[in-house]
Queue: 2 jobs
Job 1
Amino acid sequence: MAELNEPLTERELEIVRLVSAGLTNKEIASQISVSPNTVKVHLNNVFTKLGLHTRTEVTVYAIRSGWVAAGNEPSPAAAVAATPPREPSLPLPPDEMAGQAQAPSQPAAAIETTAIAEPPPFADATHKSTDLGPSVLMRDIVPFVPIVPKVAPNPTAMPPLAAWRKVALIVTLTIVLVGSLISLPTARGTATPNDDGTNVPSTIENGFLAPGESSRWFQRANLPAQRARAAAVAGNNNHIFLIGGETNQTALGDVLLFDRVSNSWRSVGAPKPTPVWNVAASVVNNIIYVAGGTTANNVATNRLEAYDIAKGIWRVLAPLPRPIAGHAMTTLNEQLYVFGGKIANATTGNSYVYDIASDTWRPIAPMPTPRSLISAAALNDRIYVVGGYDDGRESSQCEVYTPASNTWAECAPMLLPRGGFGLARVGNTLYAIGGGQAGFVGFNERYDAANNRWTSFETPHIGNWRNIAVASSVTEFYVIGGYNNNQRLNFTYVYEVFNNRTYLPDLKKTN
């Protein structure tokens, strides 16, 4: 997996040069004979290694590093009035053959919004520079002809290897390859019968794993139906609870229980009094608290309702100070904390704490950066509020709240911006899963609080995996439903953080 400040590979450097020339992912894929998805993965690695987020930033970085020379090509402002240069061997369009240069059929502003093929955050459709050489807009005004940039030579080439070193290298690579093939498992996973008679693979295929390495992702029994934007919590007795959510944007109120021992889902208890989606939930002392969310009439609610797991009944508690949806909620010292979200179509940073004993809410210091579709988790008497979405852009922001002092501080941002994702806590590590509300996501991330550092780990879904429900237990976390590439899901996944089990023989003396 790519890491910050890791050197670029030759392939990644080649893609940087082509991006700087204004080529789209499809055009790059065609030029270097790979698939567009492969280009996305390489470009994603470039963003991670360079610590950048947009194609424009990569272009500027490449020019400043000497990988690409800006040259004397016309600026984007001049591109509307001037015809970009073409190779002499290429035929001219009919309008130029006749000596007539036609104006573009749509306004320049409209051209600019359609010129970038990739969605944010991997393309910047609003920030253009007049000194970056070839303009992305040129190809929308006339039939596109790639402008090849002047490329700086690669950094200090390696001297040629001596003959004996070549032989030693070949032998070493052969031994490594043979060892890798021998270490490959005979089967990547088994299949277990699902409730509907289908087979569900118990392990997940993943291209990010090294040869012979086993994934910690496992697939469990599917949900009875596809569902997204729900809330999940881990109860006692090996149970995971899923509450609310939507199917075809219809708010749901049923309570589903997943039994980890029998690997099955079933409906339990009374339905939630107020069906909601874009909702948050937390569990304290066998009571599940569900706050806010979007109701059946597609407006936010301020309802706080509590589900008694043992009795299977609901209670209505003191309402939130304001209706809210797309917020985050977590528990610390048997108090509920709510952060951010949307209030009346406006993103907010308002934050509140709920005292369970007195059934009262009070405001606390607001988030420094207002945003919705965020996630939060408590760790070591502090609460981490991560990611989010605002004004069409996802965020990689990480902010940490300390209840004792009612203050906020910054923590290291995630490697990728993520909105509509999930945050799990197992042990002293946080896990950011999914995202892609407005962009491509090719891996998940884990946060080491001791070193204030995010690193990547594998994912079952490439592209986007958003509006999921996440529940953490002592040794693992569950990821349920959501969307992947605009398809609503009914999958149940578990990621085993501590999956090294030791079985001891029974040494008890028998008669």
Job 2
Amino acid sequence: MGGEVVERRDAAESRRRILAAARRLFGECGVDAVSMHEVGRAAGVGQGTLYRRFGHKGDLCAALLGEEIEVLMREVQAREESELALERLGWLLDRISVFNEENGALLGGMRNAGDEERRVEMYRNPFYAWLRATVRGMLDRAVEEDEISGLDAEHIADVLLAALNIDLYFYQRRELGMDRERIVASLNQLLDGLRA
């Protein structure tokens, strides 16, 4: 029994060192420029330990995003239920754009983590599932409260979130020169178009 406690402490300490090293290296060099091998070396852990904890760089980026995701979730839960569903949804889309601005490199690292199978992994992760369920719930509530006519909330939730997908978002920001406010205003125009 005592061995399990020591092993768990060691595992927690390895995880902490890996995340600290990744945060530092990503901050200094950028996510794309840092290899998993460099993270393991900087953390002082073997490659086996590193890959048991994090299968690829996308997993590492997701772990680093954990705290920011929790903050976002708490903010969404704190919004007043008395607010109209589409107003809450407009606020959420704006908040996601801010999240993209603050965490773009890590989101991109999750997206670029590997092969084609991993690219859809982003849509299977708990954060996206939560975002999707939250947006769908807001759309369902808007239908129930006659803010909007009946629609396929399951599909529309993905459509709205696709507009804030980190690849498209940074293409619009960096290549097309759109500012964050313009992107959010366009999404709010879409929401206005859904109104009953």
